[in-house]
Structure formats: C-alpha cells, structure tokens
Design goal:
globular, Rossmann fold, 436 residues, six-stranded parallel β-sheet, 12 helices, six-stranded mixed β-sheet, 2-enoyl-CoA Hydratase, Chain A, domain 1, alpha/beta
C-alpha cells in the first residue's frame, strides 16, 4: 500500500488505497519542456507552422490588432509572451501607434486599470488597449456559418490590416480545447454570436440534453468547435501564438504560425502530455482540482470533475477534492444548482437563455444524477443542499461514507492533477439511455 497526496487549497490530504483495489494513478506524461518560458516563445515565433514569420507578414503603415485573453486566464502569463509578439510586429516596420490590444472578453465583464497592467506588464502605457464589449461595441457582420450562427465580430479587429491571436491551449469541456479559434469566438464576437454557437452544446430537440460530442479532448463531430473554426475562417487571422503550460505552472511549450494549423499542432502536444488512456472504468475515482488557486471556487474546480467523469462507471462513486474557499464563484452556476432540481428543469432554463456559467451548473448537476458524487470542500454543506452532491470536510470522511454505502472492494483510479489530466477510456464509454 502506498500513500498519495491530493492537493486541497494550500494544503493536501493523503490517501492510501490497497494495491489490490488500486487501478492506478492517472498523471501527465513526462515530456521535456523548454529551458525557460522565453525559450519556448522565441522558438515558436522563429519556427512558425505553415506560415511565414510574423515580421514578414506585416509592413510599415499597417495596423495590427493583437487579441489577448481576459484576466480570468492570466495564468497563461500574457505579460511574459506579449513583448515577444510585439517585437516581431515591430521588426516588420510597424510603429507603436499602429499596434493595439483587444481583450477577448467574450461575454465577460470589462477590466480595471490594474487588471490591464497585469495582462500587459511592461507594455502597459506604450500601446492602446481596449476591452471587447459583446453587447455594445460596433460589430462587422461577416455572414453566417453553415449551422446558422451569425458571425458578428468586433469592428476594431475587422478594420485592422492584421489580426494576431494569442492564448493558451488546455482541455475545455465544450469545444474540446481552448486556444486558437476561441480568441475569435467567443473572444471578440457579439453576444448574439456567442449565444448561437454555445447553444450547439445541447441536442437540437428539447429534452434530449447534452450533445456529448462537445466535450473535453474531442474535435471530431464537435459542432461547437467546427462552428468556431468557420467563424474564425471568415476573418482569417494573420498569425497566432499559443502557449502550453507545464506541470510547474510555467510556459513549457508554445506553437505559432497559421491560426488553425498551429492550433492543431498544439492540441496534439497537449494530448501527448495530459491525455491518459485507461483500460477499464473505476468503481471509484478521486480527482483533485490541484489546490489553490485552481480550487478557489466551485466554478473553477469543475475542471477536475469534467476530466475525471470518463473514468467512472455509470453509477460509480466520484470524489472531487476542492477547497472552494470562495464558495460557488459564480451566481448563475449557483442559481442553476439551487433553484432547479433536476436536469430537465436546468435544460429548459439553458434553452431559454444559454450562458457558459449556467451550462457549468447544468453539467455539475447532471454528474450528481449520474454518479455517487462527493466533494471534499470547505464550502458550507447547506450551499449544496438538495443538489445531489454529498459534502465532506476531509477525504477520509468522504471515503467512509462511500465504503459504508457500497463496501470497500471498489476498483479505484486516483487523479492528483485532475484539473489538467484527461482520462480517456481505451474503448468508447457508451452514454446510458436517458443520461444527460
């Protein structure tokens, strides 16, 4: 028997599972990172994928819009990589006054001055920076996708001679992966565009629930992803730089070049590090949200849930280890779990008005219906009352509840880095009839 550590807030819980019951510990594969963050960025910019170097694609007198992430994704270290992007643009002869940043907020709020400073670092004050406002900014209508999504994009970007995308590639529970085309949709799209695209995550007919092709680590048949690609193609950005974070929280790798081809290369790289194939499903899966700040609230901690779900047998036990010091972290997610009592009610609300936060609440509630779902958390238990989620203060307490109800002979997977590691069954897991 070995002891394993599961991070929780700024501490950790130990867990020991007898060898005969432990299926394994799912963790990222070892892959050599760049020597420094700067090395990773420079190498990507100097060796673009299916594209000339950025410096060779811009000319003096042209305007360049650099789309960047919002503050909720500051973990990707924008202040580290943006100076290298700007340097490439300036080496093409573009003047400072012709370069500006557009924060791809999607439907999120705008930013404070301090937040802009955090995003730009040493570049702040030297270049113009604007927050995209999906409801109020002037938009350019570029038509519709083949699925009927209206493509209306921020006019500041469409009026520029060049658009450069930046961001990070990580698993995402709707379009499969973040990065690439997401800087356009939802990044700088109108509210109407975002709503139409994200609604594709539900099956067309009411009552049918989720479209399971729209899920972490999946591109084939993922209509949200395909719709985003179509929208981005209508703008056809000039260049892209995306970073990939290593296990130490620093930029470990980067890809640059053609906005679609470079992203596809980055997706393969993420899979080579963080996708773990499993030969069988577990009776019990314990997944950590990797501690602070990843588990600062329930909204952020759901990454550990969505990455772990594929490893659990239908009806099996699933434990998420997440301190959630700030509670839910999102009012719409909280409303979906507390106000609506089942997936049918939550789905109806989503179809009335779709938002990602509501969808996170819907998916979390769905997990509580499909699994014996436990959370080890500092959240008050009454906040999760009547949601189907069982609350414990310690990991030992959660395991005691599970063993008392189901016995101790449970084949178990452990996921110490559940927020990053994606479990992928070697044979496709069938969705049970009626599962939403």
């Amino acid at each position: 028997m070995s002891v394993y550590s599961m991070k929780f807030g700024k501490g950790a819980f130990d867990i020991d599972i007898p060898d005969e019951r432990l299926l394994g510990v799912l963790k990222s594969h070892e892959k050599k990172q760049a020597a420094t963050e700067q090395t990773a960025i420079i190498d990507a910019l100097e060796n673009p994928i299916e594209s000339a170097r950025l410096r060779d694609k811009v000319k003096p007198g042209e305007t360049v819009c650099v789309v960047i992430c919002d503050i909720t994704r500051s973990w990707q270290h924008t202040a580290v990589y943006l100076p290298f992007v700007v340097d490439e643009i300036k080496r093409g002869g573009v003047k400072n006054e012709d370069i500006f940043f557009l924060v791809g907020t999607g439907t999120h709020r705008g930013h404070t001055t301090e937040e802009h400073k955090l995003l730009l670092g040493e570049l702040y004050g030297k270049y113009k920076i604007y927050d995209h406002d999906s409801r109020n900014d002037p938009m350019t209508d570029l038509g519709k996708t083949s699925r009927g999504t209206p493509v209306k994009l921020n006019k500041r970007a469409t009026d520029a001679d060049h658009v450069v995308l930046t961001g990070a590639i990580i698993y995402h529970f709707m379009p499969g992966w973040g990065g690439g085309r997401k800087a356009i949709l939802p990044g700088i799209s109108s509210y109407e565009t975002v709503q139409a695209n994200h609604a594709l995550t539900l099956e067309p007919l009411p009552g049918k629930g989720r479209n399971w092709a729209c899920n972490s680590g999946k591109l084939e048949g993922n209509v949200i992803h395909l719709d985003m690609v179509e929208a981005a193609a209508k703008m056809n950005p000039t260049f892209m730089l995306n970073v990939i974070m290593g296990g130490d929280g620093k930029i470990g790798w980067a890809v640059a070049g053609h906005w679609k081809k470079a992203h596809e290369a980055g997706v393969k790289l993420v899979d080579s590090v963080d996708k773990v194939f499993i030969p069988e499903l577990g009776d019990l899966v314990v997944s950590s949200a990797v501690g602070y700040p990843k588990d600062i609230n329930l909204y952020q901690s759901t990454k550990a849930l969505f990455n772990a779900e594929p490893a659990v047998k239908p009806g099996g036990s699933l434990v998420i280890v997440a301190a959630c010091a700030e509670g839910y972290g999102d009012e719409e997610m909280q409303m979906m779990l507390q106000k609506y009592k089942n997936s049918d009610e939550r789905e109806a609300e989503l179809r009335r008005e779709f938002t990602i936060a509501k969808y996170v609440g819907y998916c979390t509630g769905s997990a509580a219906e499909r699994f014996d779902f436990h959370i080890v958390t500092d959240m008050k238990s009454d906040l999760l009352a009547d949601t189907g989620i069982k609350v414990s203060k310690t990991l030992d307490e959660a395991l005691s509840k599970i063993y008392a109800a189901r016995g101790e002979n449970l084949k178990t997977w452990l996921m110490p880095r559940g927020a990053y590691t994606l479990a992928e069954p070697l044979c496709c897991r069938e969705i049970p009839k009626g599962e939403k």
